[in-house]
Amino acid sequence: MSVASRAPEYIRAIRPYQPGKPISELAREMGMPESGIVKLASNENPLGMSPAARQAIVDALAEVARYPDGNGFALKAVLSARYGVKPEQIVLGNGSNDILELVASSFLRLGDAAVFSQHAFAVYPLATNAAGARCVEVPAVAYGHDLDAMAAAIDGDTRVVFVANPNNPTGTFLPGEALEAFLRKVPADVLVVLDEAYTEYLAPEQCYDAIAWLTHFPNLLISRTFSKAYGLAGLRVGYAFAHPDVADLMNRVRQPFNVSSLALVAAEAALGDQEFIARSADLNRRGMAQISVALDELGLEWIPSAGNFLTFRAGKAAAVDAALLRQGVIVRPIAGYGMPEWLRVTIGLPEENLRFIDALRAALAETRAG
Ligand SMILES: *Cc1c(COP(=O)(O)O)cnc(C)c1O
């Protein structure tokens, strides 16, 4: 009997995460120069990162031989000052992916269940399965979360509920009142993970204050990231706000140095440059309009999105994706999310959006002809 076959059955059953194709990989496969490739596949910020973050990284390079501050004192201090939470309510993660895994390893075991929506972020089932717990996937309504059905799906085994707002990959958005009403329905001993990875992109009229709810709902955890609007995806840093008891448990389980020194200083500097965030959100709004108008002109159905990406029905999505790749444009197929006819495109710079639109027009002509 092999070593691998002796691993727990629930580990062997895990389907690996399918990331967006890296630029270097497509360049290798197609023999294309990397400079000719447009990647709109992973919801990264097309403006890159704040110049303040870049400077902080350069300044910190000399100290890379030293371990980082395992408690992230300085980053927690700026998060605490900015958002009015106590440092003991904060957990820092190696990306918010790490936060989601820390939730699973702190709160889920064999026999427990986690509830989440159909078409929700792929890491929820991954983290749940890795802990040996059971996934309860609740059918979506209009590609978004059905909060009433999710509340009804909670039973005695449920320890965690994951809610993504906006959701990835569909971009659907739940208003604050709906979330608050949901929190009132969830039993006090079930942790609600509110994943706000794209919160910086919300329109002013969509904004709600989940942090204020922490006072009334000690079973709420808010998860956020520096990977998306802050443009630090490659550094891996995210954070959670929760009740101090919840944060304390997760801080015991996490690796002692789970956030690197460069990530810590970059995140701290990035938080201080809100002008960059405003500029990124503005660029996103204009790109969203540019791409949605073009999709309308092409006669394609798309889902209104509150994030920095747009999901559209391409029909023969795998063939359209292949034709886009041949033109050096990387988007994200989402068959793994139960949406085999759909593709997700990240909003890029105006010229990148144009490259995508032109390539999509050609890809559709090619696949409809063939
Ligand atoms: C991108 C994303 C994350 C996490 O990304 P990290 O880089 O690990 O911070 C979490 N949740 C959702 C919904 C996402 O789209």
Automatic annotation (TrEMBL):
N6-(pyridoxal phosphate)lysine PTM positions: 228
Functional pathway: Amino-acid biosynthesis; L-histidine biosynthesis; L-histidine from 5-phospho-alpha-D-ribose 1-diphosphate: step 7/9
GO molecular function, one term: histidinol-phosphate transaminase activity
Catalytic activity reported: L-histidinol phosphate + 2-oxoglutarate = 3-(imidazol-4-yl)-2-oxopropyl phosphate + L-glutamate
Source domain of life: Bacteria
Keywords linked to the UniProt accession: Amino-acid biosynthesis, Aminotransferase, Histidine biosynthesis, Pyridoxal phosphate, Transferase
Cofactor(s) needed: pyridoxal 5'-phosphate
EC code: 2.6.1.9
PROSITE patterns cross-referenced by the UniProt entry: AA_TRANSFER_CLASS_2
Amino-acid biosynthesis among keywords: yes
Keyword flag Amino-acid biosynthesis: yes
Family that this chain belongs to: Belongs to the class-II pyridoxal-phosphate-dependent aminotransferase family. Histidinol-phosphate aminotransferase subfamily.
Alphabetized HAMAP family for the sequence: HisC_aminotrans_2 (MF_01023)
Protein name: Histidinol-phosphate aminotransferase
Organism in which the protein naturally occurs: Azoarcus indigens
Name of encoding gene: hisC
